[in-house]
Amino acid sequence: xxxxxxxxxxxxxxxxGYGNMVNKIKAELEKHITIDSNATLxxxxxxxxxxxxxxxxxxxxxxxxxxxxxxxxxxxxxLKNAKxxxxxxxxNKEIFHNNGLRLVSVVPLGVDxxxxxKKDIEKSVCTFGIAGSxxxxxxxxxxxxxxxxxxxxxxxxxxxxxxxxxxxxKFQYLKEHHPQIQIIARHLAESEMCEWYNSLDAFISxxxxxxxxxxxxxxxxxxxxxxxxxxxxxxxxxxxxxxYCVDYKITDASNYIYNGKWCSAIEESLIDKxxxxxxxxxKAKELGLRARDRATFFTWNHxxxxxxxxxxxxxxxxxxxxx
Length: 323
Hints:
Blueprint: E1 4-9, H1 17-29, E2 34-35, E3 41-45, H2 53-57, E4 60-64, E5 84-87, H3 90-98, E6 104-106, E7 126-131, H4 140-150, E8 156-161, H5 169-177, E9 181-184, H6 190-198, E10 202-204, H7 214-221, E11 226-229, E12 243-246, E13 248-252, E14 261-265, H8 267-279, H9 281-295, H10 300-316
Parallel strand pairs: 1-2, 1-3, 3-4, 4-5, 5-6, 7-8, 7-10, 8-9, 10-11, 11-12
Antiparallel strand pairs: 13-14
Helix pairs in contact: 1-10, 4-8, 7-9, 8-9
């Protein structure tokens, strides 16, 4: 059984999903084992772009990372020197295997269900929400356009929670010319995010792919059903029994960051699912309760317990670490 490990993490200057993941895992790990920079076993939690740190740190190192498209970037070549790679979804495990990395294990991420929970908030108008950055992978313009087509002349809102760094002219145009679309472009405390999720009837995620999907799981923990393709990392916790599955097709992931394949949601299917929520909000509430129940199986305590179990299994197969 391991009693200590050296922990190395990504260094991010802005609040991101990766930064949130690192902070949550670190805080939970410290409840169970000692973080000691001199420990033989080393855990690196970082973006795959920084995989060269595997060589810089050296020694018996386990890497916790993820990726979103079917082809790993060139930086992944350094991962072959890791003793074990941990990823947050079976979708990721398949990607890493298909790219020639065999020592891969799955530890799903989590949500703090004491912070993110269902509140009884009355919503007079049907409200949808999306959250995350305006990066192309997140596919926000696609959702915005589908919403505008679906709700011409109808009373409905689309709330967007995004980065405070947005200066896109299209973003400013939305703020000024579409009163049905409400945008928050600043950091929110977790308690504020809980309130934000609870103000929705459904959370929409049409990302081309997710390594896991923290925003998506947080929304579900708040009792909000998701509208999303059943593709990528979200399939660890999302299916048609807890939300609305959008049809999709497999498309090329060719941009300045990604290569390979991922998914593209089909607009007609997204509009159909939004209209189903709009026309039967009580059914959406029922699915939201199931979503909340599903999310309770994905806490940060569960994440770290599984992580420690994986590390213990690794150590038991490498006795020299215990000597």
